[in-house]
């Protein structure tokens, strides 16, 4: 497991984990430990750092958001990743979800359509000691995934397309799980598990509100 190095505001993180996560339905000890370890305040704008551990999303650059801590933890728990898991993330954003996955021991390939966001996330991850052997970043369109690095045991999508991108289904390993918000005005978090070559099982989890996936997703 690779944990970002920043012990400041650890008490706030422990309170966040206890009151916002463990008090709800986040039960995976590794997820709770990762959420307690990753310094969320390093991934938000300086003007909002005081609110980093609040129970809600926060705006970042490019009209994007850093998701509510509970949603990050829930998606991570649903992905069922572990030490050495190959994970694809669509929507690097601030880099926070990527850091949580890396703290779980996963090796993460993360795609961001906004070059500025990707550069900022790379800088923050580097400053926290999350190495390039653990996290691989790319600027590009998440609709097509990262085929040359596939298959992945989990794919976590942090922006909502109107429909499920076919490429992401195909880049799942056998038994792999795709955790993705789907919809436009009304969105639901969905988990898709690959049970065979062309067989998938879909589970709807709960209503969510994410920024829309841009790029090719807008044509589908």
- Write down the overall geometry: globular
SS-based class: alpha/beta
CATH class: Alpha Beta
Number of domains: 1
Mean pLDDT: 94
Q: Write down the oligomeric state.
A: single chain
**And the CATH topology?**
Rossmann fold
Number of helices: 6
* Rg over alpha carbons: 16 Å
Share of helix, binned: 25-40%
Describe this structure in words.
The structure is a single chain. The chain has helices spanning 10-22, 29-37, 69-79, 96-103, 115-127, 166-170; strands at 58-59, 65-66, 86-90, 107-112, 135-139, 152-157, 172-183, 187-194, 200-208. The chain is α/β, with parallel strands linked by helices and 220 residues long. The protein has one domain (10-219): Vaccinia Virus protein VP39 (Rossmann fold, 3-Layer(aba) Sandwich), CATH 3.40.50. It has a seven-stranded mixed sheet. A two-stranded antiparallel ribbon has the order 1-2. Strand 6, helix 6 (166-170) and strand 7 (172-183) form a beta-alpha-beta unit. Helix 1 packs antiparallel against helix 2. The longest helix has 13 residues, at 10-22. It is globular. The N and C termini lie far apart (38 Å).
Please supply descriptive tags for the structure shown above.
220 residues; alpha/beta; two-stranded antiparallel ribbon; 6 helices
Briefly summarize what is shown.
With 220 residues, this protein is of the alpha/beta class. It has helices at 10-22, 29-37, 69-79, 96-103, 115-127, 166-170; strands spanning 58-59, 65-66, 86-90, 107-112, 135-139, 152-157, 172-183, 187-194, 200-208. Helix 1 (10-22) runs antiparallel to helix 2.
